[in-house]
Design brief:
This is Alkaline phosphatase family protein. The protein has 437 residues and is of the alpha/beta class. The chain has 14 helices and 21 strands.
Length: 437
């Protein structure tokens, strides 16, 4: 049975890895290198997708929207001393302190919600890792056709706006595919974490800003999350985490300076948010549901678990006629397991059929490790309700961006797409989320 955890993606074969796919495209000539000075100097490679329909007025628009995802950041970690650039941007713009991630509180589904404005029962992407019934295997949701609905990236591009993605994680690069006019191939990526450090990600974002100048740029900064996952002092000092926060803030400051230097600040909207926050557990504070399921005569050998750190997605793989009884047993066993916070049918969380038959959350300070006790050794995890709170604020010099305002409006990750749509004058009716301008 496949073993996975929330830090790195699960692949069926090395050839399925998104970065490997990007390299293959480079070798076969399908990728185009931007030839401008900044990209050349930085050694930055971008892929160019087929040209969109002409839109003269859109192409000439001075408006610029930058969505910066400080992956895994907790709201309370932004301060004037540790993260002065983020703090100043939040203080000078629209601060939305009642913002939350949405189930499952993982990277891929919430990035997809940001760009689609829809919940997972519509997007088709409920978690980082699922059991794919068609393949009979656990896999990461990193394929472009995993997203079942249009994104704001495509809507803008179809109207002639330039769009770009600079995503530090291989699986994000994979799932968003060629939707943007230009996309950065994450490089260099670190082993195990399979992400590009923020210093390289921001260098790529600046190069794209200077050479391609997209109207919408979607950026994922992965260091806070990746260092948080591995921080053995996460339950106490959070040493690695704090170092990552300080450096990410420095990189955000570099990017904002580049926006100002390019003369875009007065026409810019900068949305900063996280996809989820982070929770830490001690080495032995793990929960494993698989052993309990395997001890049941009906469930043994007929349940597959997709471990998402703070959430287990459980799938009945036995006879369809026995599903109802089986799921009820799964729920009873899970609820009786120490460290389990709650159980949910996927429909109640609006996760859709890809989330399986039962979703189980762990308590704060715990983590799942399935199918075995060694599947997930990492101390930092997310996916459960403890990791719902996120920072969410909007800055920039455009007149539509509020100045020094705090609103207690309930805000979610899927509010990004309608906010961007409203900024560019597009209808927000296709979205479940709300615009905050």
């Amino acid at each position: 049975m496949h073993e996975t955890h929330s830090c790195g993606p699960a692949y069926r074969d090395d050839a399925d890895r998104p970065y490997a796919t990007g390299l293959a495209q480079l070798r076969t000539g399908r990728r185009v290198l931007i030839a401008g000075a900044a990209a050349s100097a930085a050694g930055v490679a971008f892929s160019a997708s087929a040209a969109s329909a002409a839109g003269t007025s859109a192409a000439a628009s001075p408006k610029r929207a930058y969505v910066l995802v400080t992956d895994g950041c907790r709201p309370g970690e932004i301060s004037s001393t540790l993260t002065p650039n983020l703090f100043a941007l939040r203080a000078g713009g629209l601060h939305l302190p009642k913002a939350t991630s949405l189930p499952v509180m993982e990277t891929i589904p919430n990035h997809v919600m940001m760009m689609t404005g829809q919940r997972p029962d519509r997007t088709g992407v409920p978690a980082n890792t699922i059991y794919d019934r068609s393949l009979g295997a656990v896999r990461t949701m990193d394929q472009p056709d995993d997203i079942a609905v249009p994104t704001i990236i495509e809507r803008l591009r179809a109207r002639g706006y330039r769009t770009g993605t600079v995503l530090s994680k291989e699986y994000l690069y994979g799932v968003f595919g060629e939707r943007a006019g230009q996309r950065w191939e994450p490089s260099p990526t670190l082993p195990i974490t399979e992400h590009a450090p923020d210093i390289f990600t921001v260098q790529a974002a600046i190069a794209m800003l200077q050479d391609y100048d997209p109207h919408l740029m979607f950026v994922n900064l992965g260091d806070i999350d990746r260092f948080g996952h591995a921080d053995l002092t996460g339950t106490t000092l959070q040493v690695a985490r704090r170092l990552a926060l300080a450096d990410t803030d420095l990189q955000v400051g570099r990017f904002l300076d580049a926006v100002r230097s390019a003369g875009h600040w007065e026409n810019a909207m900068v949305i900063v948010l996280a996809d989820h926050s982070m929770d830490w557990s001690l080495p032995l504070d793990f929960i494993s549901l698989q052993s309990g399921f395997d001890a049941d005569d009906l469930l043994a050998g007929n349940v597959t678990i997709a471990d998402n750190g703070g959430a287990d997605l459980c799938y009945w793989t036995g006879q369809a006629a026995k599903r109802r009884d089986a799921v009820a047993r799964m729920e009873r066993i899970a609820r009786a397991t120490d460290g389990v916070l709650s159980t949910h049918r996927p429909a109640s969380l609006r996760l859709g059929p890809n989330a399986g038959d039962l979703v189980v959350y762990c308590e704060p300070g715990r983590r799942f490790s399935d199918p075995s006790n060694t599947s997930n050794p990492i101390p930092g995890n997310h996916g459960h309700p403890a990791t719902e709170p996120i920072p969410f604020f909007i800055g920039g010099g455009h007149p539509r961006v509020p100045t020094a305002v705090k609103r207690s409006t309930l805000t979610h990750t899927y509010d990004v797409a309608p906010t961007v749509a409203s900024f560019f004058g597009l209808s927000t009716r296709p979205y479940e989320g709300r615009a905050h301008l």
